[in-house]
Structure formats: structure tokens, C-alpha cells
Design brief:
Layout: H1 2-29, H2 44-77, H3 82-103, H4 107-127, H5 133-141, H6 143-153, H7 156-176, H8 192-266, H9 272-301, E1 312-315, H10 316-324, E2 347-350, E3 356-359, H11 361-377, E4 385-392, E5 411-417, H12 439-442, H13 452-462, E6 467-470, E7 480-488
Length: 489
């Protein structure tokens, strides 16, 4: 039974030793590990406090291990005075208390207590070295090491307070107090007072270097946090894109499938009018699907560079009319047509005849499709749309005065106006970024992929123009999307 108890106690000691060894390894590895994924939810100040806590844990663990396994055994072998062990005991207690306080989150208090103990021991030990000036001077030089610890574990303000205290203690101990060191005769001309400025300068330089390191680390934390947040935002955007793309693909595919199945089921019983109506719905669904795929593929291709465009003179009026004809009449009626279905929209066209722009016809058509589809999507059924085109000088092109030097000739400003939800002014700059949708729209019933306006901006800029949006963000007042293209005479 006694043997069994002894074995059990030995096993417990082994477990405790393994736990202590693991804690030491964790303390030394902690400050050098990568930020965890949850760090993206923290602020820079919170990450900075965590960093200081990890560094303080490393320093205090190192002090404990050094004292217990190196300093005390060496002192025993060299038969050091009993006062040395008292100093070691104070440092061990200060380190243990600091570790406990640091674990509770009181990093500043833990570091302050440890540094105060170290400073007191340094000055007290120097006071006992009146006969040996060199030993006392070395003690004051060691305050630079504690200032480095202060720079790594204390806020900036407390670092400089600690530096001021260290400078005052050094000046007092080496110049003014009775125990100011006196060097042996062979060190002629060397006094504690003469070394004080050098030691204080060394302490100030150490504090400054610690501050530079902390500032650099804080900048790195800020950059890492920004990278984490951008990665999370990109992941969220991709997830939302997959959800919306699934919806955008499913709707036209199901429309094509159901219409084709209906036509096959009716067979010869379908009248020519029914056949034409069913095929028309299938063709429109196919066109919508093709437009969606073009947008997604083009947006992906833009990652490798500027889109390719083939510029040529384009008559704007006929192209706009042809673009509108691709929409379902149940959504968009004939321009200026008085009679239309209850849910279709009247389109007010204000495009002067013979207005010619320099553009890629297919890309310009794609831009107009994106803007009109966007207007239809974010405004109530039956509300009107307005499409205008105006020739103007670069100085007159509203919203582009900062780019006038890049536009040597006249431009045509095309505008698409709806009377829907509008765009909050603070969110307007985000609209033309890839995969970006407004928070209001992500949570709402309107689906989208966030690539249409991004592609619109890229295509317009590739053709030599600019695109922007004007909106007060008030539902019912809607938005107006403008873009410019070079005008041709």
C-alpha cells in the first residue's frame, strides 16, 4: 500500500511538472504566434493589451525560471551573502504576483508592481555598495533593462513616467546621495557623477527604442487587423454572391424549362399565338440568363486587366431603343406609350436624334442593360423610368470637374432615373465595387450579385468615360445614374 501511495504521489508530481513545463513553453511561444481568427472582432487597443499581456507573461516566466534554476544555485555554489537570497525572494514573489494579476487582465498593474520592486531592489542594493563604486554604477545601468521591460508592457504615458523616475534615481544615486560611488584610485578622473549623464542618456535611448518598437508593432497589428477584416468581408461577399447567383440562375432556367415543357405538352394543340407567346417567354428568360452570365464572366475577366473594347461611332438613339426591346413588356412598356399593363413602366426617352458617341456598341448596350435592369429591380412596378442624353463640354459634365483635364473634347452624358428606394449618400461610393451590395439590399427581398455596377464602371472607364450616382437616399425619390462618353460630331 505504501509503495502504491508513493507511486501515486510520484505520478502527481510528474503531472504537475509536465503542466509547469507546458506553461513555460506556452509563455515563451505566446507572443510569437499568429493572430487567431477571432482577432478580427477586436479593436487595435484590445489587441495591443493582449500583446502586452503575452510579453509580460514571457518576461515574468523567464525571471522566475532564471532565478530558481540559475541564479539561486550559482549563489549557493559561490556562498553569496544572505541578503542576496532576500533580493531573489522579493523578485520571485513580485513575479508570481505579477503573473497572477496579469492572468486576471491587470497587465498594467502587474507590470507596475514588478518594475517598482525591481527599481527598489536596484537602488537598495546600490546603497549597500558604498565601498565598491563599479558595482553600484552597474546597478544603475541595469535600470535600462527594466525600462525596456516597461516599454514592452506599459502604456506609452507610463513608460515615460518610469523613464523619468529611473533618470531621477540614477542622478540622485550617482551624484547627490552619500552612497554615490567612489572609484578606486587607479580609475583617476572617473566618478559616479561623471558617468551619470551617460547612464541617463542610455536609459532615455532605451526608452525611445522601446517606444519605436511598440509603435511599429501597433502599426503591424493595425495592418493585420485590417487584413483579417478584409478577408472576412470578402468571404461574406463571396457567400452572399453564391446565394444571389443561385437565385439569379434558377429563375431564368426554371422559366425556360417550364415554357419549353408547356410547349411540348401542348404540342399540336397550341395555337400560333400561344406558341409565339410561350417561345417569347422562353427567349426572354434565355436572354436574361445570358446577360447574367456575361456580367459574371466579364467581372471575373476584369481581374486580369482592363476590358477590351473596340471603339467606333455609335448612334445612341437606336441603340437605346433596341436595348429596351429586350425587356419583358410586362415590366417595361413601349417608350412614351400611353396604354400599358398595370405593372409595366412608362419610359420617358430624351435622346436627341443623330447623337453619336465613340464607344464599343456591345459594351455600351451592356452598360445600358445593367443600369435599366438595376432601375427596374429597385423601384416599384408601374413607376416610370427616364433615360436622357445630353451633349456638353467637359466643364459642364456634372460630377467630373476633377477629371476635366483628361477629357479634351465634348462628351455625351447619359442618365437613367428611377423613382425607387434611392441610395444613401454615404453608401454611394461602395456601389461600383465588385461583389458589393448595400446592407439594406442584402437583408431585403431584392436579389443581386453585386457585379453589374462594378462591370458598368469598368466598361465606361475603358471607353473613356466616367460613371457616378446621384441620390438623396429617400424612398420614392429614387436615384439617377450618370455616365459620360466621348461625343463625335
Amino acid at each position: 500500500m505504501d509503495h502504491f501511495s508513493a507511486a501515486l504521489r510520484a505520478a502527481r508530481r510528474s503531472i504537475d511538472l509536465r503542466g509547469a513545463a507546458h506553461a513555460v513553453r506556452e509563455a515563451f511561444a505566446g507572443p510569437f504566434q499568429r493572430l487567431p481568427p477571432m482577432a478580427g472582432d477586436l479593436s487595435v487597443d484590445q489587441l495591443e493589451r493582449q500583446r502586452r499581456a503575452l510579453i509580460l507573461r514571457l518576461i515574468l516566466t523567464f525571471v522566475l525560471v532564471s532565478l530558481i534554476f540559475i541564479a539561486i544555485p550559482l549563489s549557493v555554489l559561490r556562498a553569496q551573502p544572505v541578503s542576496i537570497y532576500g533580493i531573489f525572494l522579493v523578485l520571485i514573489l513580485a513575479s508570481i504576483l505579477g503573473l497572477l494579476a496579469n492572468q486576471r487582465g491587470d497587465t498594467t498593474a502587474a507590470a507596475s508592481v514588478f518594475l517598482a520592486s525591481a527599481f527598489a531592489i536596484t537602488v537598495g542594493y546600490a546603497a549597500t555598495q558604498r565601498a565598491g563604486g563599479l558595482a553600484a554604477t552597474i546597478n544603475y545601468a541595469n535600470l535600462g533593462v527594466f525600462l525596456l521591460i516597461a516599454g514592452l508592457t506599459l502604456p506609452s504615458t507610463l513608460l515615460w513616467v518610469t523613464t523619468a523616475v529611473a533618470a531621477l534615481l540614477t542622478a540622485g544615486g550617482l551624484i547627490f546621495f552619500p552612497f554615490a560611488p567612489q572609484f578606486p584610485p587607479q580609475a583617476a578622473g572617473v566618478t559616479g557623477a561623471g558617468l551619470a549623464p551617460e547612464l541617463i542618456s542610455f536609459q532615455l535611448l532605451t526608452a525611445l527604442l522601446a517606444q519605436v518598437y511598440v509603435s511599429s508593432t501597433r502599426a503591424s497589428l493595425r495592418a493585420s487587423l485590417r487584413a483579417y477584416q478584409q478577408e472576412r468581408e470578402l468571404t461574406a461577399l463571396k457567400d452572399q454572391f453564391l446565394i444571389d447567383a443561385n437565385h439569379e440562375l434558377r429563375t431564368p432556367i426554371m422559366a425556360m424549362s417550364s415554357n419549353v415543357q408547356l410547349l411540348a405538352k401542348l404540342g399540336e394543340r397550341a395555337s400560333p399565338e400561344d406558341r409565339e407567346r410561350i417561345l417569347g417567354r422562353a427567349v426572354r428568360a434565355a436572354t436574361r440568363l445570358q446577360q447574367f452570365l456575361h456580367n459574371v464572366l466579364d467581372a471575373g475577366a476584369l481581374e486580369s486587366g482592363t476590358p477590351r473594347v473596340h471603339l467606333a461611332p455609335v448612334e445612341l438613339g437606336p441603340l437605346v431603343q433596341d436595348m429596351l426591346a429586350t425587356f419583358d413588356p410586362a415590366e417595361i412598356g413601349e417608350p412614351e406609350l400611353a396604354e400599358h399593363t398595370p405593372f409595366s413602366r412608362t419610359v420617358h426617352l430624351q435622346v436627341p436624334p443623330a447623337l453619336v458617341v465613340q464607344a464599343d456598341p456591345s459594351r455600351l448596350r451592356q452598360v445600358l442593360l445593367n443600369l435599366v435592369a438595376n432601375a427596374v429591380k429597385y423601384s416599384a412596378p408601374g413607376t416610370p423610368l427616364t433615360i436622357t442624353a445630353t451633349r456638353m463640354t467637359p466643364r459642364q459634365a456634372e460630377g467630373h470637374r476633377q477629371h476635366e483635364a483628361r477629357e479634351a473634347g465634348d462628351v455625351v452624358q447619359v442618365s437613367v432615373t428611377d423613382y425607387g428606394l434611392g441610395v444613401p449618400p454615404e453608401d454611394a461610393p461602395k456601389l461600383f465595387q465588385r461583389f458589393v451590395r448595400l446592407p439594406r439590399d442584402v437583408a431585403g427581398p431584392v436579389r443581386g450579385t453585386g457585379v453589374g455596377l462594378y462591370l458598368t464602371r469598368s466598361l465606361v472607364e475603358a471607353m473613356g468615360g466616367r460613371v457616378w450616382v446621384e441620390s438623396a437616399g429617400i424612398p420614392g425619390e429614387g436615384s439617377t445614374f450618370h455616365f459620360t462618353l466621348p461625343a463625335l460630331t
